[in-house]
Amino acid sequence: SLCRSFKASSESAPVDPGVQVSLKRAVAKKVVELIKPGMIVGLGTGSTASLAIEEMGKLIQKGKLKDVVGVGVSYQSRVLARQFGVKTADLNDVNTIDLAFDGADEVDSSMNLIKGGGAAHTMAKVVDTMAKQCVVIVDQSKIVSELGLTFPVPVEVLPQAISAVLRKLVALGGVPEIRSALRKDGPVITDLGNMVVDVRFSEAIKDPSALEKEINMIPGVVENGLFIGVANSVLVATQDGDDIQV
Ligand code: 5RP
């Protein structure tokens, strides 16, 4: 199996931002080694997946990955794919995804994830669950012993239902906050035209699978960023002294 076993507690360590970029690049280079000619590849979003799209483009330019097609989970990944010379198709034009790679905001030792830092988790969940193989690529800072302590759960919400959904999220014991854009006055709007609510819980999430379903049962919720049983393997880049290992 491709699954790298890791001990959550020993590898979860903050990394220097300069080093973190090298870790992301290392894991990006590693994941593109799994792509074979003719594959339909799910292209994740975020800074780590973006590096993998770039590395994939480099291999294609060298003539190494004939007839590979990418299916982007976001506007960002589709634009990057075109920029780096990766041919793209719409999800509705393909019947299968052979391999999907994607980043994550938190990964626990059962390979459950929190995603959605880039507000693209709804389509990421569709593409990643459809893939025959979903490979998550992270640096060591994303490894946690329990989900929900450092990163809130992103929830994509229909704008027309925002107040009703906020009340239900509070009733579930969460502290929801509407995600706002950094340089604009107003909420973040997803590729699908919805809002994102980041929900913090006072404790670690004890039953992520139950919470994933409970949140999605709230009318007006489109999808949440808990990815339970979606990843087939996780590649983790770690720093060991000056050495970077994946
Ligand atoms: C986007 C995501 C990203 O994969 C996640 O935020 C990780 O991003 P990065 O690789 O930049 O840390 O879920 O919705």
From TrEMBL:
<dbReference type="GO" id="GO:0009052">
    <property type="term" value="P:pentose-phosphate shunt, non-oxidative branch"/>
</dbReference>
<keyword id="KW-0413">Isomerase</keyword>
<dbReference type="GO" id="GO:0004751">
    <property type="term" value="F:ribose-5-phosphate isomerase activity"/>
</dbReference>
<protein>
    <recommendedName>
        <fullName>ribose-5-phosphate isomerase</fullName>
        <ecNumber>5.3.1.6</ecNumber>
    </recommendedName>
</protein>
<comment type="similarity">
    <text>Belongs to the ribose 5-phosphate isomerase family.</text>
</comment>
<dbReference type="GO" id="GO:0005737">
    <property type="term" value="C:cytoplasm"/>
</dbReference>
<comment type="pathway">
    <text>Carbohydrate degradation; pentose phosphate pathway; D-ribose 5-phosphate from D-ribulose 5-phosphate (non-oxidative stage): step 1/1.</text>
</comment>
<dbReference type="GO" id="GO:0006014">
    <property type="term" value="P:D-ribose metabolic process"/>
</dbReference>
